[in-house]
Design brief:
This is ParA family protein. This protein has 255 residues and is α/β, with parallel strands linked by helices. Helices cover 44% and strands 16% of the residues.
């Protein structure tokens, strides 16, 4: 009897808002699904904002109002011959069960399920949800408050949840986001050494700072960066080194 291949459960997770977890969920999911041919599903459990659900509504409206993007979307979907990946809203305390039910019921084999989770450990069920991930990726910026919050959070996952053994977590990966080339290199070296001393994993990729991470595409735009319906433009990916991040990301999760 042939059994379904189990999908990877992945979360971009952080205890600090504004570092890019929802944005990276979208960028990576869209690259894998629309450009690289994998089948992706997303669960938006980030109550109360549910930003990915709202983003998909905005993306659809933007494409319908922009002739250039409408043509791009039509060409894309007829070429890849598959639908947009689903984004489902759910509570964090039962999102794992919902994901397993979705995967088991899906006619199309799912390769990766992404989870957009709340940014606080006080949320009911959040630790259980995190323990059910196979890989966790945490964006960090060279900011003292962000670093302190992130390092405490990551050590909690590594030293408490993973050491208890009741977890599916294989890797926890910090990575630099919003890197400004004008910032002093010693600052990054200081944090890199601290991360190493704490025994935490840091990705080699540095994603450069870009206004594209914080703004929706303009109404008259002819390129796409952050979208739930289309992959990010390859030139824009290269400009902020997101292309290098994707290669390292795929290597880590062995996809």
């Amino acid at each position: 009897m042939e059994t379904k291949k189990k999908p990877l459960f992945i979360a971009f997770s952080s205890q600090k808002g504004g570092v890019g977890k929802s944005t990276f969920t979208t960028l990576v999911a869209s690259t894998l699904h629309y450009r690289l041919g994998y089948n992706i599903a997303v669960f938006d459990a980030d109550f109360p904002q549910h930003s990915l659900i709202k983003m998909k509504d905005r993306d659809l409206k933007m494409i319908m109002e922009n002739e250039a993007l409408k043509k791009m979307a039509y060409k894309q979907f007829t070429t890849i011959n598959k639908k947009a990946y689903p984004i489902m809203q759910h509570r964090s305390d039962s999102v794992l069960e919902a994901a397993h039910e979705f995967v088991n019921a899906s006619v199309i084999p799912v390769d990766v399920v992404f989870f957009d989770l709340p940014g606080t450990v006080n949320t009911p069920g959040i630790l259980k949800a995190l323990a059910g991930m196979h890989h966790i990726f945490t964006p960090i910026t060279a900011d003292r408050v962000v670093m302190e919050s992130t390092l405490v959070f990551t050590q909690l996952l590594q030293d408490v949840i993973m050491k208890k053994g009741e977890t599916d977590i294989k890797t926890i990966n910090l990575f630099w986001n919003q890197v400004d080339g004008r910032e002093s290199t010693p600052l990054y070296e200081l944090y890199n050494n601290l991360i190493k001393e704490l025994g935490l994993s840091l990705m080699q990729s540095h994603v450069k700072n870009s206004t594209r991470f914080r703004k929706e595409s303009e109404v008259d735009s002819k390129t796409i960066f952050r979208s739930t319906l289309m992959p990010p433009d390859e030139r824009l990916m290269k400009a902020c080194q997101l292309d290098l991040f994707m290669k390292e990301f795929q290597k880590i999760i062995q996809l």
